[in-house]
Amino acid sequence: MRNRILGAAALACLCVGICGASASAQVIDFETKPDGVAPIDNEALPLGTPYTIPFGMGTLDVTIGFDVDGDGVPETAAVFEAVGSDDITGFTGVGPDGPSALFADQLGLFFLRSLSALNDSSPVGVLVAEYSAPVPGLSGEIWDIDGPEQWEVRAFRAGETTPTAVQISPEGGLGSEPWVFSLADPGPGFSRLEIEHIGTRPNSQLGLAFNNFRASESVPGPELLVSTPASEQCNIEGVGEVTLYFTEPVVIGDDDVSVVTGDAAALPVRTQVINSGSNIVTVRFRSVPGGNQQVGAVPLIDNDYVVTIADRARALSNNVPIDGDQDGIAGGDAVLTVSHRLRVDFDGNRVIDFFDVLEFLAQFDAASD
Predict the structure, then answer these.
(1) Above pLDDT 90, what percent of the chain?
(2) Residue 354: phi, psi to the nearest 5?
């Protein structure tokens, strides 16, 4: 019996070790080349040379290159870039290729960049990753998206020319920080990934900095647990703000929130985000529908109000976008409704008094006839 217990324990430890190794090995962080040797700065990743990662009961080959001439076939090698290195850089952040202090460990020592780097007017092209077998999901990071820079991430099933899933980065706002994309396919799976610049930044000021490629799995994002008020409010004052409770601290900017009336007019409401960087964030209403922003809170009354938190909102710890649609995958806006009705104000003058009683009785009698 003792031998059986020891054997079972050893098997469990072996399983944990193997599973842990597989999970970490699935992240291609470009700290090593496909052969496991550390790269040197500005070294090319040879076209057609695959990273081999654990996948299912076997392995998966992933090749990465750039399609610059637009024929759909990678003909230009990607390049390993050392953080804080020379004048040939993928981005200028906190120094050459330097991340903000909060994300230094996340970037590591190396990332992958386009051959066309900063101060090079040649086209960046489209990053293409191709797979030896379909995968259910994928995710990765694009670093230092700033100014008029914006990227489109497309994932394709085998043999298809129309992407199954698309994700578009914010336009700027992430200097020296990562933008994390995450895509999943509930069907046959992805066999090809493309990343293309769709912003207006000129090639002479553009480079693609790519890192932490989870080639075979998507990642979850922070979720909205609950919001308050959670039910229709029937007070005289109205609703001045809504408080959001997330599973972890999140960064939400004022531009990441939109509020409109729930009727056909869809009039916008000005807002202010309070306590960004926490897991409890408040959105304060700062105007009447369609009006100008006021100094203090402006309670909303007598309507439904649709509040949208765009998936530009992201985790404080690693910039992973919120999982607003709560499908288990980072990305997707969070949408909720705040409602207010003063249902006992029967004459509509926003004062509850004896005249409302009279109006109620009159309506009651009319309905009884």
Answers:
(1) 73
(2) -60, -30
